[in-house]
Each structure stands twice: as C-alpha cells, then as structure tokens.
Write a structure and sequence with these properties.
305 residues, eight-stranded mixed sheet, 5 helices, 16 strands, 17% helix, 36% strand
Length: 305
C-alpha cells in the first residue's frame, strides 16, 4: 500500500471559451486565478489555474480551454463530479449567490451532508459540500461562505470492483455506501482526502470534450515521495509515465482500470516560483520551451480580464 500520498492535489478539466471559464471560477465560485500559462503540449491553448491565495495543493482547479471544443458526453470511465468544501451553514447564502448569477442549483443529501449541485459553464457537474474545514480561503467571496478547497471527486465507472483494489492500494479505505456511491477516504479522512466511486453499469462510455475532467491529481510531498510512489505503482503492474516537469510541480501519470487518468504531483516548487504571491495569475507565464512564441501567443490567445 502507498504511504506517501497526501490526498488530492488538483483537478484538471477540458473547457470551452477561456473568458467564460475565467469569469465563472473567479466571479461565481470566488477562487483566485493563480496562474495564467499555456498547455505544455499545445501552447496555443491556455492552462488556467484557480485556487486559494497561493494555489495550495488541494485547493486547485485547472482548465484547458479550447474555444471551439464540442461538449463532452457524460458516461463511465470518467470523473463524474468535483466537490468543493464550504463552511457549515453557508448553503443558503450559496443558493442565493448562484441564483443571482443565473446558475441553477439543486439541494441534495449524501452521507448526511448538506450539498448543492450545479453545473459549470461547459456542463460539468460541480457540488458544494458543507464541511468542517480550517483551510483559509481566497477573499473572492465573504469568508463565511467562501470555498475552502477541494472536498472530493467522484469516479463514474461501469465496474466498481475493478477500481476498489487500486484505491485500497493508494491508501483509501471504504467508509460507507449509499445507493450507487461508495465513499473512500485516507487516514486523514477530511476534505481533499475523499474519493467516491459512482457505480453506473447502465451508462455508455464517456466521450471527452468541454466539461470533461481530463485528470485527477494526488499529492506527493516532494520528489523523493513521488519516486517511491512511482516505484510501487510500477511494481504493482501499472504503466506509469516518466517524471515530467510542469514548472510548478513534478508529475507522473497512469490510467486506472476504469480508464480514468490519474496524476501524482509534488507540492514543490509551487506557483510562486516565477512571480510573487501578490501578482499571481496576472501575467501570461510561459514554459521555457515556448518562451520564443510569446509574441504570437499574446496575439492569438483570447484576452482575459
């Protein structure tokens, strides 16, 4: 069993129009844009990061916005929903806030929690969960209601039993079942340390597009921890990529038995490695291999507020 993982690091989704995505996560969800950069493999596409003041691991939502991307089709083999923790008692304030932004919301209950379900600008399923969470939020919304960070992710699969052994190996233990949902948590057990399996053998496989989660990233404290995780996953028979420098963290990737892409990312070096905390996200930052494209990219990329 892995002992070096420390919960969720970030979640990355495919998106549509960059400006719509940016405005939704800053103005509606109240997160800070902590990094404005480009996709390593396709520099003509933004990579936008949103989170708390400095993009602390476990608070970060990121997007690859393709302006002309078609909507994804929901189904199995994907991350079905992303949940964020909000303070206990803040659901009513959130419902009013979302209504003011013309975002429909549905109240639901799962595992005894108060939850609000909504959809993002590209149809992605998001959930706000009232939970005890002492992480300090960004000041985009009043502190009494502001998002604290990731709460959990829900993996929608056709075969629950083929996913459970991997999550157990990753240090997650089952804490409950309700309907089609199985909840697992690591030893910490709090927000950003929860993974759920949504068992939906009745659905067709998902088709990736705008609104689809590209990958879910888990935390490794540093590169030594990441190396131990990679060795253990490889020894267990998983096909893991080499270590990749993503400027703000080091990353490895592998596919789960259900077809979902997992990443293990380091906490180091963080988003302040190339700009001060007070100016995070304000300027376009480019990976060194794409620095020579700055003039072309600044003309090509849709301006953000």
């Amino acid at each position: 069993m892995l002992t070096d993982l420390n919960g969720l690091h970030h979640v990355t989704s495919v998106a549509g129009a960059p400006r719509a995505v940016d405005r939704f996560w800053r103005e509606v969800m109240g997160l800070r844009r902590v990094k404005t950069t480009v996709n390593f493999d396709n520099p003509e596409v933004y990579h936008l990061y949103f989170g708390d003041r400095i993009g602390t691991p476990g608070t970060v939502m990121t997007h690859f916005p393709f302006p002309n991307a078609r909507r994804g089709a929901q189904g199995t083999g994907e991350t079905g929903q992303i949940a964020f923790s909000i303070p206990p008692g803040s659901a009513d304030d959130w419902a009013a806030h979302l209504a003011a932004h013309d975002v429909p919301v549905t109240r639901e209950a799962l595992f005894g929690e108060t939850r609000l379900a909504l959809t993002g600008p590209d149809g992605e399923r998001l959930v706000l969960v009232e939970a005890e969470d002492d992480r300090k939020p960004w000041d985009g919304l009043p502190e009494a209601m502001a998002i604290r960070g990731l709460h959990s992710v829900s993996l929608r699969v056709a075969d629950r039993d083929e996913m459970l052994p991997l999550l157990h190996f990753m240090g997650f233990a089952e804490t409950g079942r309700e309907g089609a949902v199985t909840r697992l948590a690591d030893e910490t057990g709090g927000p950003a340390h929860i993974v759920e399996i949504e068992h939906r053998p009745d659905l067709s496989p998902a088709r990736e597009g705008a609104g689809s989660v590209h990958h879910v990233a888990f935390r490794a404290r540093d590169r030594d921890s990441q190396a131990r995780i990679r060795d253990a996953l490889t020894e267990a028979g998983h096909r893991v990529t080499d270590v990749r420098d993503r400027d703000y963290f080091w990353a490895i990737y592998f596919r789960t038995p259900g077809g979902i892409l997992f990443e293990v990312a380091t906490d180091e070096p963080g988003f302040t490695r190339d700009e001060p905390a007070e100016a995070l996200g304000e300027e376009l930052r480019l990976p060194s291999q794409h620095a020579h494209l700055r003039g072309d990219l600044e003309r090509m990329l849709q301006p953000l507020d």
